Write the structure tokens for this entry.
Amino acid sequence: MTPAWQRLEASASSPVKRHFLHGLALLDRTSYYAILVAMGMMTLLVSAQVFSRYVLSSSIDSADELSRLCFVWAIFLAIPHGIKVGIHVGIDALVTYLPDSLQQLLARLMAWLGAALMAALFWISLGAAISKWQELMPTLPITAAVFYIAVVVCAGHSCLHLVAQALRLEPLPSAPERYEGASS
């Protein structure tokens, strides 16, 4: 197995591109673990709520809201990982009939357009998070903006992956090393 630094050297010819890919891989890895934490917390909260409600005949007031928050964060953190590998909805009925060079040009153009849209979403959701900052969640003393912050993070992370695709930079693996060779 090739070490990550050698894959990085092979992936980008300029130092700026190497640093960009390295930073993106670090962001991917951090996001990967944050998804695991959010999913684990959601599972524990829902399990504790079910146990409390049906065994103890009481309820955890904030369990529904916290589990919803964990679900939202897990979903929005996972979206850029799908964009990175091209697992997103697309209709290619017409594109498949185009020549390969035109398909590649169109793919780069769409990646730039997608990056621009994600940058706009980042800016708009940042404004929404700022405007919601004073509002608190009903059962917790936490700002309601945490839901919007998930969108901010998703849009920024997705924008970076779309820029990498538009520049034809091959993403570095972001899964932990021990799982990379598990399929062989």
Observations:
- Residues 13-87+97-176 form one domain.
